[in-house]
Design brief:
The complex is a heterotrimer of chains A (187), B (455) and C (148). Chain A is α/β, with parallel strands linked by helices and 187 residues long. Chain A is 34% helix and 22% strand. Chain B has 21 helices and two strands. Chain B has helices at residues 3-11, 15-25, 27-42, 48-67, 77-87, 89-140, 144-150, 156-185, 188-201, 209-215, 219-225, 232-245, 249-259, 263-287, 307-342, 344-358, 365-374, 376-388, 394-406, 411-421, 423-450; strands at 68-70, 296-298. Classes of the chains: A alpha/beta (187), B mainly alpha (455), C alpha+beta (148).
């Protein structure tokens, strides 16, 4: 079976590496993590019987690069044949994180959104309506607490479903931003 | 990637995507695209990337608001207090001093550089490994030159490996552990914002606190980490300061050991090196062209460090050290061997003796300086031997320590400078360090001789 | 092949442009409307973030910088018109909360962020954890709705 390429993207400190380790486990070819994050980690994983190459991209806030890390991430997304992107976001800062999700959807990547750190969010009184979010943006959304290994199974299910083309009728195209007609500028 | 995304990236002026489109579409068609981008940009008073970004943020706001429920949550009171203590200058600065004292001095300096190194060096290498290797080599290798390469005073195993494993690795390892703890707690950004104003004086921003702190562990890794600084100018200044006036833990260990019985000498050394740091930074920031640095940083909440995270980071850094730096040190032993066999070293030593005499040191000290390039700590150790043999007065010891600290970085750090900044900058920085080291040594020697004072 | 591709890229760029232009126009309208509502409640003069003291709150009105990278960075931290901020510390750097993120900036950047003060000056300078003000969020959304 063809090995699929899965890229994990997101801002620094949202749990990308934790997810990377959870997916690749013992099969990870751990690359050096010196003081810098510009190095890219790659590992192999078998998820529900499907072989994957998992890429842990450097922390990025947006597809439009301003840091070296973001440049690496953009180049990676442009150059590699990515089958699926998992965007990991911090549930406490959804407002800041969604613009990047929108960009990834716009760019046409098959996407699974991982809303992580739900426990901390709940602790400060924030609750995220996961199905509601899925409905709003039109891509698969999973809530996780990666540090406690919660939600990883559901995430794997969605990942597999997405690469097998089962999207449950959800595609990126029902996103409001994309449907909005282009109007000419009125003076 | 969809055409829409490519279009947005073109409008945002991303240079990679512009280059890509020029390449795939041909120059003529690309020009058409570029004109459209330019025309659009002219119709807006803000950069297009910002205009698009704001619009996207608006959309995100609507989505986020619809799916987020905010209840008055419990506040982590403990976190609040800690936040206050680490941010409010009157408490944050004493806390910083405590962190440096216990974390850096007591843990890395006294325990790491003292206890652990003593054990590995005196017990493991001096008593077990070195005699075994020497005996083995003596028994099986006929050629004297080859014997010297592997064993003896400067052998690849007996010197190269011994210094890397017994001295540098424990010190650097403990430093990395301490640094990883600070990193994992989220304290580093606070350190950065606290020191931003001070760093602005020397042309850097608070962000530089991370490579600078790391420099007290390993200058080579710190030089690599200067990548995280925003502008080329900041990276150059930071690289210079690391090469010039930030002693790495291995060197610091030997110098502290050598001067610890003479507190005044230690203070004088620290004062002069500190002054060189500030003056060089100030000078470089005036001299180097470029924009003034800006500082912005996210300040994550403090948290109790997670041991597994800390260990993973420490191990990753030590692994990096093993793979990237240690071979250079072992290789340096081989270079020393070649230098000695071919007589090249004698030549360089003769050359170095001139400035060494100039700063008022005995010519033998040239040896320590030359070796200091191959191993910073080994240079210091060379001085230590001279001092013990009674060849240096206290004043000379201070002059020698200062000059050696400012002197060019070790070979691994120099290689990293070359790799990160390019050969021009690397050579220029090394030349500046060399000049500043001997000029400072010269001036210090004059002052000490003038006051007639051994401190 | 390349020809069709090109025309589409150029077409998309042009299309995107039109969309953005419309977006900005709409954005300006919302912006005025929002300001109107607020000044109706309580007249608030704008000032620079650098003028706020620890404990004070404000709403970002405009970021005056012309530097695209800086604007982009502030955007990445959701420091955009409409965002509510709360200052934790004004010295040695400006530390403030925006949403659930705490950000530190230097004085030069703080000078380029125009804000309007919200509420009364708080005497408490202890950095407070999270502020959830659903009322403010609701108002934001309300003014946003018509544009959709």
């Amino acid at each position: 079976m063809r090995r699929r390429k899965l890229a994990i993207v997101g801002t620094p400190n949202v749990g990308k590496s934790v997810l990377f380790n959870a997916l690749t486990g013992a099969y990870a070819t751990v690359s050096n993590y010196p003081g810098t994050t510009v190095e890219v980690s790659r590992g192999l994983a078998t998820i529900r019987g499907i072989p994957f190459e998992v890429i842990d991209t450097p922390g990025a806030y947006s597809l439009v690069p301003i840091t070296e890390e973001e440049r690496v991430t953009l180049r990676l997304l442009l150059a590699e044949d990515i089958d699926l992107v998992v965007h990991v976001v911090d549930a406490r800062n959804l407002r800041r994180m969604i613009p990047f999700t929108l960009q990834l959807i716009e760019a046409g990547f098959p996407l699974v959104l991982d809303v992580n750190i739900l426990d901390e969010a709940e602790r400060i009184g924030i609750r995220i309506d996961i199905p509601g979010l899925e409905h709003e943006i039109g891509v698969a959304v999973v809530g996780t607490v990666l540090t406690r290994d919660l939600g990883v199974d559901a995430l794997k299910d969605r990942v597999v479903a997405r690469v097998q083309g089962v999207t449950g009728g959800i595609t990126g195209t029902n996103l409001r931003a994309l449907r909005r007609p282009c109007r000419a500028r009125s003076a | 990637m969809s055409r829409r995304a490519v279009a947005f990236l073109l409008l945002s002026g991303d240079r990679d995507v512009h280059a890509l489109v020029r390449h795939t579409e041909g120059r003529e068609r690309y020009e058409k695209v570029r004109r459209i981008v330019e025309q659009t940009a002219r119709r807006h008073d803000r950069p297009l990337s910002y205009v698009i970004g704001l619009k996207r943020q608006e959309e995100a706001d609507v989505i986020a608001r619809r799916v987020t429920q905010v209840a008055p949550g419990r506040k982590g009171r403990f976190v609040g207090v800690l936040d206050f203590v680490t941010l409010f200058p009157p408490t944050a600065i004493p806390l910083l001093i405590l962190v440096v004292y216990f974390g850096l001095y007591r843990f890395v300096g006294v325990f790491g550089a003292g206890t652990v190194v003593d054990f590995l060096e005196r017990r493991v290498f001096a008593e077990v490994i070195n005699p075994a290797v020497n005996a083995l080599v003596a028994r099986h290798i006929g050629s004297a030159a080859l014997r010297e390469l592997l064993a003896g005073e400067y052998g690849v195993v007996t010197l190269g490996l011994r210094y890397s494993v017994a001295i540098v690795l424990p010190i650097v390892g403990m430093f990395f552990f301490m640094f990883s703890v600070l990193e994992d707690t989220g304290y580093l950004p606070r350190l950065a914002l606290m020191s931003d104003r001070a760093f602005k004086l020397i042309g850097l921003s608070g962000r530089a606190v991370i490579p600078m702190t790391l420099g007290f562990g390993c200058g080579t890794m710190a030089t690599m980490v200067t990548r995280t600084l925003e502008t080329r100018r900041e990276r150059t200044i930071a690289t210079l300061l690391l090469a010039l006036a930030v002693p790495c833990s291995a060197q610091l260990g030997v110098i502290l050991g050598m001067l610890s019985t003479r507190p005044q000498a230690l203070l004088l050394w620290a004062g002069v090196v500190g002054a060189a740091f500030v003056l060089a930074g100030y000078g470089a920031s005036r001299f180097l062209p470029g924009e003034r640095p800006v500082f912005y940083m996210e300040v994550p909440p403090l948290r109790v460090p997670v041991l597994s995270n800390v260990l993973a980071k420490t191990l990753a850094r030590m692994k990096w050290y093993f793979v990237e730096v240690m071979p250079l040190f072992v290789g340096a032993s081989a270079v020393i061997w070649i230098g000695r066999v071919t007589g090249l070293f004698q030549l360089v030593l003769k050359g170095l003796e001139v400035p060494v005499r100039l700063v008022g040191l005995p010519p033998e000290a040239a040896f320590a300086f030359l070796f200091g390039f191959f191993r910073r700590d080994y240079g210091a150790a060379g001085l230590y031997d001279l001092a013990r043999a009674g060849r240096l007065t206290d004043a000379q010891l201070v002059v020698a320590s200062v000059t050696l600290t400012l002197f060019v970085p070790c070979v691994a750090q120099f290689a990293m400078m070359w790799k990160e900044r390019g050969w021009r900058s690397a050579l220029a920085i090394a030349a500046v360090a060399l000049a500043v080291a001997f000029i400072t040594g010269y001036a210090l020697n004059l002052v000490l001789a003038g006051t007639g004072g051994a401190p | 092949m390349t020809g069709t591709m090109t025309s589409t890229v150029a077409g998309t760029v042009a299309g995107t442009v039109a969309g953005t232009a419309a977006g900005t126009a709409a954005g300006t309208r919302i912006f005025r409307a929002r300001r109107g509502t607020i000044s109706g409640e309580r007249s608030m003069p704008t000032c620079r973030l650098a003028a706020l003291r620890a404990g004070e709150r404000g709403r970002v009105v405009r970021v005056t910088s012309a530097s695209a990278p800086l604007l982009q960075k502030l955007l990445a931290m959701a420091i955009v018109p409409g965002s509510e901020i709360r200052v934790d510390l004004a010295f040695p750097a400006f530390v403030f909360e925006v949403g659930n993120t705490r950000v530190a900036v230097d004085r030069a950047i703080a000078q380029q962020i125009e804000v309007e003060r919200i509420g009364r000056v708080s005497r408490c300078c202890t950095p407070r954890a999270i502020t959830g003000d659903p009322r403010a969020d609701g108002r934001r959304g309300g003014t946003n709705e018509p544009s959709l």
